[in-house]
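Per-record layout

source: Amblyomma triste
name: Putative vitellogenin-2
length: 816
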Amino acid sequence: CWPTLTRRSFMGRRRFPRDASGKERKEIEDALHIHDREYDHAYARLSLCLFGKAVDTWSFDESMLASIKPKDAPEKTAEQILGREIRKKVFYLTHDMTYLTPTEFGVPVFFDFKRAEFMYAHRQKIDIAHGDAADIHLSINRHYLYEMREYQMVGFALTFAKSSLGSGYDSQTLISWPLDLKVTLAPLEGKLKLHRPLHLPWNAVNHHFRPFTFQMPYDLSTDVDSTVHALAKAATPLYRADELYEFDRHYFGDIFGVDMRMKGYLIKKGLHRGLNEFFNEMTARDRFYYIIINPHWHPRDVKIYFEPAAQNPTKELDIEIAYKFLEHDDARESHFPVHDQIGADPEVPSTHVLNLDLNFKGDTKERKISAEMRYSFNHDLFNHKLQFFYDRTPFSNNEQEHFKICAAAEAHFPKPDWTRIGNLATFYQGRQIDAKLDFHYGSSCEGQSSVTANGHFSHTEHDEEQLAAVAANKPITQNLRKSGLHWLGLKCLKGREHGIPFNYYCLKFLRHSSRFGKLTADVEWKNYRPLFEKHLKYISKYHHFTPEEGGFLGTVRSHFTGENGKLHLISRVPWWNLKDQPHTDLIITTEDGHRYSHWNVPTFSHLLEPRAHSSLGYSNIGEYSPLYRHHVCDLQGNGLRTFDGSVVELPNTDCWKVVTRDCSPNHRFLLLARATGNPSFSKALKLFIHKTKLEILSVADDSGLILRVDGSKVEATPERPYSHTDHDTELFEVKTHDKWYEVVSKPYGIYLTFNGNLLFVQTAHFYRGKLCGLCGDYNLDRNHELSGPDGHLYNSTLEFAKSYVVPSSDCHPPSH
């Protein structure tokens, strides 16, 4: 009969008994008496502040997990976390200042400034229900209100006449936000549904700023209450009614079915110039300052309402967000024209799918938006594809057709040529990243407007010169600031002369030399129409006043002339300091042969300088966030470099040594290495993950490395990685390429690279301060790096390393 092929046995998935592995690990740990490390537990505090005042504060720590009982129903757990009904009122008298200062004229000057703030929050009890398909339904009702009221006066106190005169202003800001939200969480379907009845009309914002002059009695013996009434009667507006511009505008009613009404008045003089300065010349910080402080005391009264539209009003808003991950053998279903295949690669890629659906529902009309983003990649992560689809039904009354966008971008990264590893300067020389972009839009994704770009990323000329100089081992003759690659390469070569194949500088050089900062591309457009044609005049005006905000795409688009055309572009991203903003030098050649140069064009990202580096779990996302940058502990020759960068001298012994271990109470993993005496494969590796033992070692002088799991030999090839499961969950995966083994455990946050002589270790960020062993505790503090198994701090790296040698009768311990 034929053997049964299940999903768990496919791609090398196997499971083994682990009793012997657990016993061996316990014997190792008992021999060293390793103590658990003290570390800072997870803690977070979230504060809601408004204008510098804390409205509410929430604290989170590991004690929250104790309140979640596994046997409780999901709705009970959610109710414990989200709490019950809360009604909160907060009042602040944030400013209360009165000054009376004598002057040389014999008339005192007074200054009076008062500000009061009121915040109200009504959080009703959340109604939670549990559906049949593990769905969780939540009904959320909230009402938040913020009010700020202030006045300021400055004037002269005519004490001899018991009178005062001066100027001031009265200001009020009121913001109201009611919330009625129905939430459905469907984890089995990967969907989040939000339903929001609009409950219109809704007065969202009221704001006024009224400057005035006054003349009123000044008598310190007068009752305060009568003074307040006297001020209200004596205040005269600083501006006449004919100096104010009244407005009553309506926005978005025809588009969304919800009318945003803005009503009030502004100062008439210089209004057009002031609005132009506000929107086109001020920064976001300046705009906020002008709105809140109003330094020129301009009178204004603004009320913002949300009302049903006059025609086809919207009454409800539905939002649905869905996510799913598609394996290579999963069905590819979508109502968009998706194509996940990446170029000519025959492999069916894995794909992340994110869907967003919006529905503005009314009795007579529904306005719908549907969007989908798909990110596909092959198993070795060298081919990538990003697709975006957008479909909008007619929103306004004069629209008759859908508006659609279909976009696809591909990137093909070069596979590393490990035969060049002996000379790192040539590792990426002559390589390139092929890129392609297809962008279609209009009433259909076929036969309408389109923009296509085909090109490749390569080294800039300056980077090529530096790499050639390193390959020839030439000294630096230029400014050191402009020779960063050259300097790193020479430091790497110096380390290799001392027997360290990949020192710290080699790893940095390998990463930075993979930067391809030159883009050469051909761009073609057909039936070109501005994507936001109705707003083109506003966009053009904005870019006219702020050309520095145009960016790379805006600069390229400015050369689109006519409905159809072509252009050739070359973009060079120079090395820039951390204080500088990402920018590029752009050369565009149009179809008629004219050449245009644009210098220091903002790029706002690192997309125009991708890196082809693929070792040690590197991802280009690491250029944006430190969460994706992991420190490396490497074992080479007779030395080791810890996670925090300290160099440790290793003792001469063939016993197992603890490279790194999870020294929290969880004891998730233990990694050991030993010297073998084999000149071809000088080291052996042993890793305990949970209750499973993994070994990579050579069993004879003339044999290569083999892979064993719980004592049994298993196979792993470049085409067929080995995947190990525990309770139907992948515990770790082993990949091989050119005599290198990569061990990746995503659930446990471990990444290893090993070739029998060199070992590189990376762990997830949540292990910081929780590790022990030769690689240190990974707490980013070198001062306490040499901590032994029992926590003793050593002054000598050699003595520190000896403390982690596992004593055994079948090895030769180091001499003391």
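summary: The chain has three domains: 85-308, 445-613, 620-804. Residues 1-18 have pLDDT under 50 and may be disordered.
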